[in-house]
Amino acid sequence: MTNISSPIGVFDSGIGGLSILKALRSVMPAERFVYFADSAHNPYGEKPEAFVVERSLAVARELVEGRRSKALVVACNTATAAAIHVLRAQWPELPIVGVEPALKPAALATRSGRVLVLATRGTLQSVKFAQLKAKLEAEHAASDANNNQGTLQFTCVPCDGLADRIEQLSASGKRWQDAPDLVALCAGFMTASDPFSLKNEEKNKGFDTLVLGCTHYPLIRDAFRSLAGDAVTIVDNAQPVALRTMQLLRGKEAPSEQVGGVVWRSSAEEAQLVQAARYWGVAQD
Ligand code: DGL
């Protein structure tokens, strides 16, 4: 049995979910969280879907049955795409929130209609992602017929190795500004699909909206910003996920006088996770 003081379980393949946890803690400061990083088995994004489903189930079991979580947040786009339906079938009564690349906010934000989506190979190859993309394109085409807004075009680039490189950054304690190879890796993915032009501020030329479709990527948002320039809108779904979780917990919220906090769990080194959480500004305690 869970109660209002039970924790909210949050997991990712590694440290990427810290970008979601940060938003969760800021909207629900009195809640207790258990964050699980499956660092012994990451990256998920380049592994077979069946492996991601199996790991997601194992981690969720620890959070739901082992830790008695009152809600579960799948803070990983790749695990959400592969496994959220399996998790919902396993625990039908439990509030379960996933994260998907922020295509909807991007479709609302873009003026040129050209949106660049960076995500893992697993996310971009998933049926769930294909359905989301097709739905938004169809909706846009229908409204376009009325408003003559121009076409909406999502260009999707799988970023092999990027989540892993972001893990290494915090493990090394370096800043992204002192990691030129990481910046070059990001630039390579951003320019992989011609005709993206960095810092292209001319209207209707190049992408005007960038989706960070893996929870690791917002951790280095400033690096993407420095490459893309100020005219590009950069979106992710951390805040909507936090607000949706809060909404689903209505009536089961922690008492406001409760002191919130996080229990850190990892399938590898917990000390490394705590160090990463401090590095990314998610663990003050
Ligand atoms: N952070 C994960 C995501 O949002 C995946 C990173 C990985 O393990 O490949 O997709």
Task: Describe, in plain words, how this protein is organized in 3D.
The structure is a single chain. This protein is of the alpha/beta class. The protein folds into two domains: 8-99 and 238-279, Rossmann fold (3-Layer(aba) Sandwich); 103-235, Rossmann fold. The chain has helices spanning 18-27, 49-66, 77-90, 103-109, 121-125, 127-147, 162-172, 180-191, 221-228, 238-248, 270-279; strands at residues 8-12, 32-37, 71-74, 96-97, 114-119, 153-158, 209-212, 233-235, 261-266. A five-stranded parallel β-sheet has the order 4-3-1-2-9, with helices on both faces. It has a four-stranded parallel β-sheet with strand order 6-5-7-8, with helices on both faces. Helix 1 (18-27) crosses helix 10 (238-248) and helix 2 packs across helix 3 (77-90). It is globular, with a radius of gyration of 19 Å. Residues 200-204 have low confidence and may be disordered. The structure holds D-glutamic acid. D-glutamic acid binds at residues 12-14, 16, 42-45, 76-78, 120, 123, 163, 214-216. D-glutamic acid is lined by residues 12-14, 16, 42-45, 76-78, 120, 123, 163, 214-216.
